[in-house]
Write a structure and sequence with these properties.
The structure holds 2 protein chains of 2 kinds. By secondary structure, chain A is an alpha/beta fold. Chain A has helices spanning about 40-45, 70-75, 95, 110-125, 140-155, 170-185, 195-205, 225-235, 290-300, 320-330, 335-340, 350-355, 355-360, 370-380, 400-410, 430-445, 455-460, 485-500; strands spanning about 1-10, 15-25, 30-35, 55-60, 65, 80, 105, 110, 160, 190-195, 205-210, 215-220, 255-265, 270-275, 280-285, 305-310, 315, 330-335, 415-420, 445-450, 465-470, 470-480. Chain A folds into 2 domains: about 1-235, Rossmann fold (3-Layer(aba) Sandwich); about 255-500, P-loop containing nucleotide triphosphate hydrolases (Rossmann fold, 3-Layer(aba) Sandwich). In chain A, strand 11 (about 205-210) and strand 12 form a beta hairpin. Chain B has one domain (about 55-165, about 195-330). The chains are: A alpha/beta, B mainly alpha.
């Protein structure tokens, strides 16, 4: 039996896992469920040796395991198929499968043995694939099977599948699950991480549900639960909602930002949304629903192929962020703050002032003092904790980084803000402060489009909620702030969509 | 609750001994002392120090040309050939049109800037790595320069130079007196290089343009998402590199006494050495002009010193390589050590 007992993992400013327990029996399919940010990915990374736990232990039949790295975990018999592809496209199927233990002698590759080994693994899955095909020529589903074969080639007894059907069609998913059942019957433990509850109920035997880094259901037989009982467990009825002051949106005001039947080159179809000044429109959906991409299309980073975007009632064709900022006073606080939001190697002052250098500059030169004053204003306003404005942004905690990334748009005096996943990777208390901050911005009259995969957050903050799935808006709701009712409605909306798709 | 929490730790600032500029100064002093003891002629103004200053000036400007694109995390491998092409343009303008110093120089600088802008344009439009683009450009320009010199001159150099270049070559401020007071024995090219360094420093430290270039180098995606026209900044940085390379070509021509086809042949490696020794990162986002001044000085001091110790040319190259490798490794070791200390709780 494989047991991960009371695992703890902290990152600067966040307790990602706080005593999560996972128990696996051989010959079973185990579902690992939880909302975005509940700690699933962190748990998977601990089990596969990517991270080391700060507390708790991993044992297998009573023997404690320590992984020095991903390879050690694989050698110990824990295979993983990540959500993103990890194959080398230019190599053949066989080469990819045996990549970590290439058979050979004196540095020469034994192609015969390599093919035989690959064939053995593919046969375990009963998959018909020529080992000599380059991986680049495979479909996504075939690639996934090759990854499973690769995990099996290391004689894995535990196999973790992270959202394996995210990019598969219904038929392909069915075939994958046939393989999963076969693995179970041959004595493997399969861990299935998925958002698609129908699939989970069809395949899994037992379930662990994570919430806020803790396991709220541990290796429970899935038969005992209904789908809505699982949803309740995932979102948690006892969510302590913070009290935000009531805001009223002046419905007579024209929308600050309006999208009308917008199609994009990325495949969004018929997107219609609008946000009024002083209003927060929550844009909820699962990861991959196309929300950030929609925001980037509005900013001109991706082509809009049909429909109209209006800013304050006037049609707008925004060609880049500079124009969005200066002409339309529209800002975008990115989700991926490390790669898109911040300049980690630059001082905080520059990170905040970068959007307004044009305004500060005198004869092309930027006076230090004014930049410092400006930075200090927003550091104070947002309660950013820094030791000096010259501190590098990369040295701040996640919450403070996020505030810096927000500050540059406030400094630019935007009146429409698209805020993308503002509290991902931020601990609970800072999160609450951030929610107050965002609500405060709306109260000051900003129009806010809040992209979030965090359901409690969306329900606490938004005035209205648009639900996106698969590049479409599948429904819009007026938010009653009644958590139980709203969450049920929204989750059903998404899962109904996944089911019929 | 955010405000009442304990203040965050001090920012991790490198201790004084880990400052690469300081290390360079120390190394410089030690080397000068070493060479002076072995060869007292090292301190001879007319024989050593004055020509040394001219050389430092040229290679400082060469380093600044590279620094302009290192700011982006890019490279300009055509820095020497851009200088050569610009020098040809200066020679041609003077030789065929009879233009004076200022006009010829301006035309040359313009040619350099255009070449740089072309490289930048190709890089920003195609997304091809700057290494590849400027390498290709270097090859193309090598051929072009040979053809140009063959068609416009005897094949090697222009026979004449604009009036005033002789003064840049031979004169020092000691030749210019106001009554009894004469200037120090500093060559006339020195202030040109220093002004260039000051302007580049001003650009990257205080100007919006320079800072936006640095931000683009620091994180191009974030820069674009902050409203910086990153493509334009790439073109501008490369144009600046070309312009400064042209200035370096001009200064070398002044030192050599001719606009010749060989100008820029020796620019490529020193162009990286000066800024990198001075602490400019290859990954972009940070530059040090002062460091580049020190880096250029250090390389030329080593060169001159070993020269005085009568090393053969090939030996000279070998030892310079070794000394620089040692300097860079020491720098790296010091940095790692400092990081480790700073990172400790």
């Amino acid at each position: 039996m494989f047991v991960a007992d009371k695992l703890v993992k902290t990152f600067p400013g966040v307790r990602a896992l706080d005593g999560a327990t996972l128990t696996l029996r051989p010959g079973s399919v185990h579902a690992l469920l939880g909302e975005n940010g509940a700690g699933k990915s962190t748990l998977v990374k601990l089990l596969t040796g990517v991270y080391r736990p700060d507390g708790g232990r991993i044992t297998w039949d009573g023997e404690e395991l320590h992984f020095g790295g991903p390879l050690a975990a694989q050698k110990a018999g824990i295979g993983v198929v990540h959500q993103e592809r990890n194959l080398i496209p230019a190599f053949t199927v066989a080469e990819n499968i045996v990549l970590h233990h290439l058979p050979g002698q004196a540095g020469w590759l034994d192609k015969q043995r390599m093919r035989a080994e690959a064939r053995r693994c593919l046969d375990l899955l009963e998959v018909e694939l020529d080992p000599d095909t380059p991986v680049a020529r495979l479909s996504v589903a075939q690639g996934q099977l090759v990854e499973i074969a690769k995990a099996l080639s290391l004689d894995s007894k535990v196999l973790l599948l992270d959202e394996p059907t995210a990019s598969l069609t219904g038929d392909e998913a069915d075939r994958l699950y046939t393989v999963v059942r076969r693995l179970r019957d041959s004595g493997h433990s399969v861990v299935l991480v998925s958002h698609k509850l129908e699939e989970v109920f069809a395949v899994a035997d037992t379930v662990t549900v994570l919430r806020d880094g803790r396991s709220v259901a541990e290796a429970a037989p899935l038969e005992g639960y209904s789908q809505s009982a699982i949803v309740d467990l995932m979102v948690g009825r006892a969510f302590a909602s913070i009290e935000l002051p009531q805001r009223t949106v002046d419905a007579s005001k024209p929308p600050a930002l309006r999208l009308d039947s917008v199609d994009t080159a990325l495949g969004h179809r018929d997107i219609s949304l609008s946000v009024r000044p002083g209003e927060i429109l929550g844009l909820y959906g699962l990861v991959g629903a196309g929300r950030s991409e929609l925001a980037k299309a509005v900013l001109g980073l991706e082509p809009i192929t049909a429909g109209t975007v209006e800013v304050h009632g006037k049609p707008a064709r925004i060609k880049d962020v500079g124009e969005a900022l200066r002409r339309y006073r529209l800002g975008y606080v990115t989700e991926d703050r490390k790669h898109e939001g911040l300049f980690l190697e630059q001082p905080v002052a520059r990170n905040i002032a970068v959007t307004v250098w044009r305004r500060l500059a005198k004869a092309g030169l930027i006076p230090d003092r004014q930049e410092r004053t400006l930075a200090a204003t927003y550091v104070e306003k947002l309660g950013i904790r820094i030791s000096s404005a010259q501190q590098l942004a990369g040295q701040l905690s996640g919450g403070n980084q996020q505030k810096v990334s927000l500050a540059k748009w406030l400094a630019a005096e935007c009146d429409i803000l698209i805020v993308d996943e503002p509290t991902v990777g931020i601990d609970v208390r800072t999160k609450a402060a951030f929610h107050e901050l965002i609500a405060g911005l709306a109260a000051d009259g900003l129009a806010l489009l809040l992209i979030s995969s965090d359901l409690p957050e969306t329900i606490v903050l938004a005035d209205r909620i648009a639900v996106m799935s698969d590049l479409r808006v599948v429904g819009q709701l007026d938010n009653t702030h009644n958590y139980a009712q709203m969450s049920q409605q929204i989750i059903r909306m998404i899962h109904a969509e996944v089911h019929t798709a | 609750m955010e405000k009442t929490a304990a203040p965050p730790g001090r920012p991790r600032r490198l201790p004084l001994w880990a400052n690469p500029r300081l290390g360079l100064v120390v190394l410089l002093v030690l080397l000068v002392a070493f060479f002076s003891i072995l060869r007292p002629a090292f301190l001879d103004t007319r024989l050593t120090l004055t020509p040394l200053q001219s050389d430092i000036s040229v290679y400082l400007v060469v380093g600044l040309a590279q620094l302009s694109v290192l700011s982006l995390g890019h490279m300009n491998l055509a820095v020497g050939r851009m200088a050569a092409t610009s020098a040809f343009a200066m020679g041609l303008t003077h030789d065929k049109l009879g233009a004076g110093l200022i006009v010829s120089l301006t035309v040359g600088l313009l040619v350099g800037a255009l070449l740089g802008a072309l490289a930048g344009l190709i890089i920003s439009r195609t997304g091809v790595n700057s290494f590849v683009v400027t390498l290709a450009m270097d090859f193309a320009l090598v051929g072009l320069i040979t053809i140009l010199y063959a068609s416009a001159t005897d094949g090697v150099a222009f026979p004449t130079m604009p009036a005033g270049m002789e003064a840049l070559r031979f004169d020092t401020f000691a030749d210019y007196c106001l009554g009894d007071i004469c200037g120090p024995r500093i060559p006339l090219v020195v202030p040109i290089a220093l002004v260039a360094a000051l302007l580049v420093g001003l650009l990257f430290r205080w100007s919006r343009l320079g800072r936006e270039i640095l931000m683009t180098g620091s994180n191009a995606r974030a820069a674009e998402l902050s409203g910086i026209p990153t493509r334009t900044r790439v073109v501008q940085a490369h144009a600046l590199s070309g312009l400064i390379a042209a200035l370096a070509g001009f200064l070398l021509a002044a030192n050599n006494g001719a606009f010749s086809a060989g100008i820029g042949d020796s620019f490529l490696l020193p162009s990286f050495l000066a800024p990198v020794l001075g602490g400019t990162l290859l990954v972009g986002g940070a530059v040090s002009v002062l460091g580049t001044v020190l880096g250029a000085t250090l390389t030329q001091v080593i060169y001159k010193g070993l020269n005085l110790l009568q090393f053969q040319l090939d030996q000279l190259q070998l030892y310079i390589g070794l000394v620089l490798l040692a300097a860079l490794s020491l720098d790296r070791a010091r940095h790692v050590l400092a990081e480790r200390r700073g990172a400790a709780p």
